[in-house]
Each structure stands twice: as C-alpha cells, then as structure tokens.
Amino acid sequence: MPNKHERYIIDLIDGKLNYIHIDRNGDFNDTNIDWKNALILSGSFNPFHKGHEKLKEIATAVTKRKSYYELSIKNAVKLTISTDEVFNRIRQFKEKGDVILSDAKFFTEKSHIYQGAIFVIGADLCQEINNPIYYGGEEGLKKSLMTIKNNDCRFIVAGRFFNNKYHTVNDLVNIKDEHRFLFESIPENLFRLDISSTEIRLMNK
Fold first, then answer.
1. Where exactly are the transmembrane stretches of this chain (predicted)?
2. Burial group, residue 200, by CB count within 10 angstroms (0-12, 13-18, 19+)
3. What is the reported pLDDT for 79?
4. Topology (CATH) of 4-204
5. DSSP secondary structure letters along 84-118
C-alpha cells in the first residue's frame, strides 16, 4: 500500500497532477503557486551540491523572486528515474529549499506548467536548448522558443566551463539574434563555477 508521498508521485505519473510541491521540511503538497513571482532552478541534482545553492542564491538576488529547485522524473536524453531514486534526490534538499517535482522533460512543457516563471540555467544547457536537433529542425526550435515567450517565461543564464573554455551566454553562437531577448546573463563576477554534478560523481567514485 503506497504511503502519502508515494501516492502523490503516482498521481503525477498518471497525469492527475502537473507538479508536486515539496517544502523545505520534506512535506508533499499540491499548493497553487504564483509562478509570475517564481524563479526555478531545474536539474537532475545527481548530486545536489554547493554550486546549485550558490547559483540559486545569486539568481534570487538578481531577480528578487521566490526560488524553487525543480526535479523532473523524466529527462530529455536520460531514462525516467525510479521512485526510490526520486526520494533519494529529494532528501538532499531538506532544510535547504523548496522543490517542485514534475514530469516535464523540455522547457516548452515546463513553460506551460510554470507560466510567468524565470528559469535559471547554465550556459551549457542554454546551448542545448538552442540546438535545433532536439526539435526536428530550425522551425521546431523557433516554435518552441516562441511558446516559452508566449507563456511569459524567460531564462537567466550562468556562465559554465565546457569544451575546454569558459562560456557565457554571449559566447553562444547558436542563439539566433531574434531569440536572445529570452536569455539574460548572470555576470561572471557574481557567479562562476567550473565543476559539474557529473565531475562530482566521478570524484566520489
């Protein structure tokens, strides 16, 4: 027999809920949230680390919005994570911040759920978001970004070290000029982190 928290996740998987709100005490609820005043840091958080906390802190100061971590049970390029793994990752946030759990893989889908929100991302993910290969071509990419715009969402982007170079949003040549207004840069002097969750996992091994 599933417990209360497991029932929430079952309802999310079955499409009965768009998202689950988990407060900093670890309690699950389906509270209605004003996304127009929300900042969302999405990620796999495998593991959650100090860089995530610092990025959320800086982005919160820049935007003056209520901030949330967001974990999806699905991923654009990875397999759906198990219920046990969902609980393992959620436990990392206890006393550290509110978490939103969803099954939205792409930011197009997220923008329908979190209308009016600002998403905080790294430059490496920003480059992927602007890669037409994920959308079936340039027209699909344009349609996706315009959907995000029409849902009154946008991005604030932190610089990241990848491909042997530190990149800010201004270095990403694959962003079309017509779409750059959706991507605001966090200045390097406010935030810079050169290590990723993947690298932390490798070090832990």
1. none
2. middle
3. 57
4. Rossmann fold (3.40.50)
5. HHHHHHHHTTTTT--EEEE---SHHHHHHHSTT-E
Residue 119 vs residues 33, 62, 82, 142: alpha-carbon distances, Å: 15, 13, 25, 18
Rounded alpha-carbon distances, angstroms, from residue 21 to 6, 31, 84, 101, 140: 13, 7, 18, 7, 31
Over residues 14-67, the pLDDT tens digits come to 889 999 999 999 999 998 999 999 999 998 898 898 888 999 999 999 999 999
Rounded to whole angstroms, the Cα distance separating 15 from 2 reads 17
Task: Look at 155 and 13; give whichever has higher pLDDT.
Answer: 155
Cα(181)–Cα(116) distance, integer angstroms? 15
State percent of the chain over pLDDT 70.
89
**pTM value?**
0.88
Task: Give tens-digit pLDDT for 181-195.
Answer: 999 998 877 666 655
- pLDDT for residue 129 is more than 80: yes
